[in-house]
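Much of what follows relies on a compact textual record of a protein's fold. A record is reproduced here so that you can trace the correspondence yourselves:

. . .
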Amino acid sequence: MQNDIGQTAQTIQTPRIVEVGQHRDGPRCPPGIRLGRIAQQGVDPGTGNKSGKDAAGDVPAANDQDFLHAGIVADDIGELMSYQVTVQPGGRQFVAESDETLLDAALRQGLIIPYGCKDGACGACKGKVLAGSVDHGRAQAHALSDREKAEGMTLYCCATAQSDLSIECRQMTSATDIPVKTLPSRIEKLEKLAPDVIEMHLRLPASEKLQFHAGQYIDILLKDGRKRSFSLANAPGDDNLLQLHIRHVPGGVFTEQVFSTMKVRDILRFNGPHGGFFLREESSKPVILLAGGTGFAPIKSIVEQALAQGNPRSMHIYWGAKARVDLYQHALPEAWATQHPQVHYVPVLSEPAADDHWQGRTGFVHQAVMADFPDLSGHQVYACGSPAMIDVARKDFVSVCQLPEEEFFADAFTFSAT
């Protein structure tokens, strides 16, 4: 992805603090801990749950039995209601309040539904409402069409419950013990990888580490409360030094500073890690890693982590870009493929320049995958790129190449100039 404010034991000295900010647009308002709003039998909402973590920080984690008897109740503050949500297959349950999205409710209770932008733009959290009714909220038309709504689909990052629900999510997992933190960081390096792409290295305080899954992202924090989200491009091994791939967006609040006034030793604050885009290590299926543009960043993180762990799974990397210059780290996946027999790399250009003298594949990157793998029924796919690329890849891989829908994992991003 182009990709809590706490105190640290050691601070970083810097000549200035700059206001910054992504490639995922829109506000991110994590839910707070709502005590006293859930009616349960035999459960004290203030003390009855274990403590866990989600994208909002400290939250009560879900005990599957805690919510079995949750009913529809009037909130003790205003007219808010609480509804029971049952997730199929499996029958796991959580409670959603009428003023929070289904995604926020799940995260608050220690359950992870795959998601990306949290703004109704990417479609990564799209799922089916099997029973009950929802308000679709701010879901954008390109991510959730009227036809899909009529078929019972919704975006969990936008939908709020209007009744008890039964929903479908085949990729729900429990939250790990990786904490979400807000930390200061110092810019250690700014390296231009292409005319419009900079690799930024962020150094954490010596007393701090950031645990994360390869493929996750962080939110850079703006002074006015806005956030800009970027995937981590390095593997978790060096969790004191973070890498981001930042594409220039003309007029962008954040990227204009990165490409003009920002300099080494400036201080940035961030919150993370976030996201459900990471390699499912319990599977042994061969993996298709699909990247568009700076969507290569989380793919790089995933591959480097897999190689560091000696993971023997077959990995086929497809990196799509407009011209040769946009394959800004082309030599790196080439080296992986040369040095590791389980790694394969296919670059694809959609509009190669005349002076590129390109002899490789051309066209849409997901179509290159389909040409090479007409049967994806035994694979997993991890895709990161624009919402349009993610949407068409998901549809074509599932409908044409027989990819099981639950084996498609995606992280879609948008570029913001505000």
